[in-house]
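Researcher: I'd like a structural prediction for the single chain below. Treat it as a standalone chain; there are no partners to consider.
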Amino acid sequence: MSNFFCTDNTRQIGEDIIGSATDYQTYILVECPQPWLANAFSSRWVPNNLQVLVEEVAKAKLPVRFLLIANDFTHKADYTTLLIYQKQEGLSRGYIKHEFKLSQIEQVADIAKKWLQGEKPNSEIATNITRDILVCTHGSYDKCCARYGNSFYFHANNNISQLELKNIRIWQSTHIGGHRFAPTAIDLPEGRYYGLLDQDTFQSILTRTGDIQNLKKVYRGWGILPPAIQVLERDLMLSHGWNWFNYKVAGKILEQSLDNNTMLGQLTFEQGSSQYTYQAELIKDHTKSIEVKSSCNANQTSKVVKYAVANLWLLTDNLLNFSLHSASVSGK
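Model: Treating it as a single chain, here is the predicted structure.
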């Protein structure tokens, strides 16, 4: 059992990783020196008031994700960076960033609590950073994130420096889910999730150049959308090309069968001054739904359900104008 690496297993069985991004209203990212324990917020540098807040939010089942982050300067920094990413409602490109530089980590809980209660703290700062990319390196939680996440982070950091992308920051992060897809990353403010990453594909994601079809094997989905709709969004992204990343999008499930085998999904996007709405029949893809060990420490397998797009229609002004090809979204 000790030789089992969940990522190696995922690669061997060729699991399609789409539909595995998680949907949160708010990300609260707290800069905190390593090492991080398996239960991240019990780590040495995390103050008690922050531990308490994280537990309260978890108990209340709020759609909020707390993560610890660090980079190569964290140990030397004389301030703590706090990033709050808030989901935009309606048609959007993802999240809005709010950044705070605090003289000590003990101040984080107070600001985060005010934020969650609807107050806007006045200590927000402006920066030239337009993207924060989080790479999970939380090896105490799952050894694949140490084995694959750490080396990926190191090379990705160099990649960003060599490309002189001054407006992009990369962080090591605690567990973001889906360690069997290590190395995994979240690209904020969009909130898109990636997995099984390599440096060439990562460079394409950074620069939005190259063959977009290469994203098919590393794209876990867009965290602002329900998992089944993420399959539809990937299909549209692959057909529209890199321009898709400039569009505002919203999606929802309109209907679903009692057994969840079929769903009717809707995705609307805004391109310039035009708005387009697609509807799609999403069906359980029995050829891709698998039994898998979801982590290195899992004692048993769990069933992972995958969806495919069976039929796709473009609606215009709520009238069915014409039918597009039937397409299976998640082909091999």
